[in-house]
Design a protein that fits this description.
Two copies of one chain form a homodimer.
Chain A: H1 11-18, H2 22-30, H3 37-50, H4 56-63, E1 68-73, H5 79-92, E2 98-103, H6 108-120, E3 125-129, H7 135-143, E4 147-151, E5 161-164, H8 167-180, E6 186-191, H9 195-210, E7 219-222, H10 228-241, E8 247-250, H11 253-266, E9 275-280, H12 284-287, E10 293-297, H13 299-314, E11 323-325, E12 328-331
Parallel strand pairs in A: 1-2, 1-3, 3-4, 4-5, 5-11, 6-7, 6-8, 8-9, 9-10
Antiparallel strand pairs in A: 10-12
Helix pairs in contact in A: 1-2, 1-3, 5-13, 6-7, 8-9, 10-11
Chain A binds a DNA duplex through helix 2 and helix 4.
InterPro entries (chains A, B): HTH_LacI, LacI/GalR-like_sensor, Lambda_DNA-bd_dom_sf, Peripla_BP_I
Domain HTH lacI-type (chains A, B): 9-63
GO molecular function, one term (chains A, B): DNA-binding transcription factor activity
DNA sequence: TTGTATGCGTTATCAA
DNA sequence: TTGATAACGCATACAA
């Protein structure tokens, strides 16, 4: 296999052309203040003319660190994380830091392996989803000298920094909303029971148990990834098991939309016969017919804050808050607007 | 800023412990056949015991190349590319090649800058979306010695290898389908007019002009990214401009779903009063009420094929086909099932 | 403000 | 089959 090395312009070439030493060029790039205005001008001109770009591998090797900020998400196809990634990207945009994604596919083992791979590259920082890292992963991270931001959840004991919200509280609020709207036989539709999903189920259980309305028959879950079609299937399953169910809390919006479609196929009126509440508040929820109630989460904002926090920390501006809860909001829409005389 | 260098186990450590030279360890890792069975066993034991992992930066610097396959997509939030990325990931999974994503945000300039960044890392290969690279980008790519796979479109003159399908033909087929179903006043809803979208519009125009049914008034587009909500707005816009429109081709499925919701709000029957056809065939199309006709594209498969092709080429197994058209299928559903007596 | 010497961890080359 | 030596391109430490 041949080298991919082409017409490599090195720092030495620049130095020679500019009539200075390689070190001065190196400094001109990283600490321009410590180089005379004259040299700086010369060097910059030569760099432009020659099209010099530093070799990141050489930089990493010599400096013992990189400008890479690793990001570990459990999925690249899940819209939730797509939004988070956008936020992370946006905030990293005009900085000198470079974002690199890794996909753990919801597997703690793959996550551990990704962390190893990243740490081997001596990243400046690591953004990692959730708080359920394996003990080995936590050890690796603690022993590394790189900064860490956990995202999408919240806890009292973050590894380092954290930006997220409480899934259990989100689910509690949604469930309370359904009760408040007069629903009494409330079910739960859940797909892919990752840790966050499980916490939502936990919150749902809490509230229903307190209200004396809990019925395990109304909990329908599947390990498959959530889709709209699956929402319809789960809804059908629930209705066959517990036909008197009058409302559902779906652990995400895909399922909620699928459930709505299933109700339409069965001639069930939403919200009169069936109340529906989703989670995440994707934009389509607002324009469904009827519009679907959901728990809005601030996914892109979480990405932005996390990256800003990371960059601040890396650039020596230690953030005031290193544990941020961005919360959630129950967006009440027609799909849970139960008529007084219903049921 | 301190080093991120920790307890680094180097190849020299392994060599010492195994009683061989560093070169032999290096060979044991890359060309085990050229190392004696005895040394190999020793070395592997020591590697395990010490937990040695090669430093990628040092490898890149010394070897003049990396095992990185760069992937440039125009969006990470667009479901289309999320699916492609999944395919790429899947196919790269058990190889020695590492995938790295870059997001050009639909900007040829950002794409060019990404290409430069990637090429600076001496990637083994580059997967790049579309065929509309800037002249400068094309030049950079041609001058580089790395392999290239263009994806998601097709052309006679690929830069190197290519896996995709024809957007213009997809749109033509969809439009013919609508005509075949008896619709006569067909409109087009389009968002974010990227090159692929524009080709779909072109195909739409072709067919309608040939059929003598073209009416520019029925083309409604916006530069905004497509959403379900936007589909509803565009549909409303179209109906106010051309109230006698009896069918629409949407340049993607989000818009189609939004258009369906808008019809529901207006009491328009789909498919009797309005035929709706989407593009991409996301899974939700099948479970909408009524199910929505769409043009199925093989996004994940494109990713898989592209990565397999790349890996084969990199490992010296030059692929038989380097220009693959994976086609598309019009999936006819109830949303375009126009009753005989309608209109 | 600038430069020199040295090392980062690995691989290519060539000789043994 | 193995090893010694010399890069790879840059940054650190220190000296001037």
């Amino acid at each position: 296999m041949k080298n991919n090395r082409n017409k490599t312009v090195t720092i030495a070439d620049v130095a020679r052309e500019a009539g200075v030493s390689a070190m001065t060029v190196s400094r001109a790039l990283r600490e321009p203040d410590r180089v005379s205005a004259k040299s700086l001008k010369q060097i910059r001109a030569v760099i432009d003319r020659l099209g010099y770009v530093p070799d990141p591998a050489a930089q990493a090797l010599a400096a013992g660190r990189t400008n890479v900020i690793g990001v570990i998400v459990p999925s690249v196809t899940n819209n939730v994380f797509a939004d988070v990634m956008r936020g992370l990207y946006d905030a990293a945009g005009n900085t000198r830091w470079q974002v690199q994604f890794g996909n753990s596919r919801y597997s703690p083992l793959e996550e551990e392996s990704l962390v190893r791979t990243f740490l081997n590259q001596r990243p400046a920082g690591l953004v990692i989803s959730g708080i359920d890292q394996s003990e080995e992963t936590r050890k690796l991270l603690r022993e590394s000298s790189c900064r860490i931001v956990q995202i999408m959840e919240t806890t009292d004991r973050p590894l380092d920094m954290l930006v997220g919200f409480s899934h259990i509280e989100g689910a509690r609020a949604a469930t309370r909303h359904l009760i408040g709207r007069g629903y009494r036989h409330i079910g739960f539709l859940g797909a892919r029971l990752d840790p966050r999903t499980q916490r939502r189920l936990e919150g749902f259980r809490d509230v229903l148990q307190d209200a004396g309305m809990m019925d395990e028959n109304r909990i329908v879950t599947t390990p498959q990834p959530s889709t709209v079609t699956l929402g319809g299937l789960l809804m059908a399953d629930l209705l066959s098991r517990a036909p008197d169910t009058d409302a559902i809390f779906c652990n995400n919006d895909d399922l909620a939309l699928g459930a709505l479609f299933e109700c339409q196929r069965r001639g069930l009126s939403v919200p009169a016969d069936m109340g529906i509440c989703g989670f995440n508040d994707f934009e389509m929820m607002a324009s469904a017919v009827p519009p679907i109630t959901s728990v809005r989460t601030h996914r892109q904002e979480i990405g932005k804050r996390a990256m800003r926090m990371m960059v601040d920390a890396l650039e020596g501006r230690e953030p005031d808050e290193t544990l941020v809860d961005l919360g959630f909001e129950v967006i009440a829409r027609q799909s849970t607007n139960r008529p007084r005389n219903a049921g």
